[in-house]
Amino acid sequence: MLRLPPFRYHRPESVGQAVGLLGEHEGDVMLVAGGTDLVPNMKHRLFEPGHLVALKGLSELGGIREEGADLRIGAAETLSAVAASPTVRRLFPSLADAAGHVAGPQLRNAGTLGGNVCLDTRCTYYNQTEFWRNALGYCLKKDGTVCHVTRVGKKCVAAHSADTPPVLMTLGATLVLTGPDGTRDVPIRDFFVADGIANTRRLPNEILVEIRIPLAAAGRRAAYAKLRQRKSIDFPLLTVAVAADVDADGVVRGIDGVVTALGSRPRELTGWADLSEGRTLDDDLIDELADRAHKQCHPLENIIVDPEWRRAMVPVFVRRALEKVRAA
């Protein structure tokens, strides 16, 4: 049986108190909301913080509401709540779709949108028990000096495996972070970095408090598609998010595509605007866009599925997402 390491559990009454606890126990503290990813990782001794600061009960981190020019979603809103929200489904159905495909219903009832955005990267050689990792000699992300994927010790390539960030990127979302120096806004396009060990720009003493999506993005046609081994529970082998601006005549005026689960951060597909602008989203254009995505994507052996097969699935799932956009 895998047991949790010892820790002290804190239940602050405000975000300010939570930030204070992060500073008080700096270097030995982590945040916990739903705990659906953190708790298993602690059992595997991937994390052994002496203190956990709970966020789930903070009313400041809740709510789904239209305010000003944005839809504002509290970071502690559960994935189930986001998926079922009439407001989210009306304005941004691709986000509701993505949230509704994370893991299974029990985990979505506990896991939060903020937790999904800040999800730790995953790798075949990392997400294992301490006994397994010790037998292998550990890895660059935890306790070791070599990346077993690239066979060198220069850079961790653990995979970004969250479902909602690619969709939020195509919708132009902004993340609101609070720390000891106040609040700052970070466009989600700038939030992730190509580092499998620490792949976000969130500082250790900051808390993600809110996700804001411009209401203007509700006019975009958007879609989401996910590849996984089983149709429930599993982390994605590939996630595709697409959003397009299409005029009344069906002509594409702007288009964005994002894929993830292939590298340490979500990847924006490039060159799509040049191919699409001024054209209709017909079969020929969809094939061209899918082919462009295939040329850009090169999965690594960081997930226990053949990388060439995953690469072959890129144009398949890009095409499916684009067909959803066309039908919207």
Low-pLDDT sequence parts: none
Please give the CATH architecture of the largest domain. Answer: 2-Layer Sandwich
How many structural units, i.e. domains? 3
Q: Biggest sheet, open or closed, and with what strands and sense? A: 5 strands, antiparallel
What is the percent of helical residues?
A: 25-40%
Label the overall shape. Answer: globular
Structural class: alpha+beta
How many DSSP H or I helices?
12
> H/E order of the elements?
EHEHEEEHHHHHHHEEEEEEEHHH
Descriptive report:
This protein is an alpha+beta fold and 328 residues long. It contains 12 helices and 12 strands. It has helices at residues 15-24, 38-43, 79-84, 86-91, 93-99, 105-110, 113-117, 130-136, 164-170, 272-276, 283-296, 307-327; strands at 8-10, 29-32, 51-54, 64-67, 70-74, 174-179, 182-187, 207-214, 221-227, 238-246, 252-260, 267-268. Helix 11 packs antiparallel against helix 12 (307-327).
Short account of what is shown:
The chain is an alpha+beta fold. It is built from 12 helices and 12 strands.
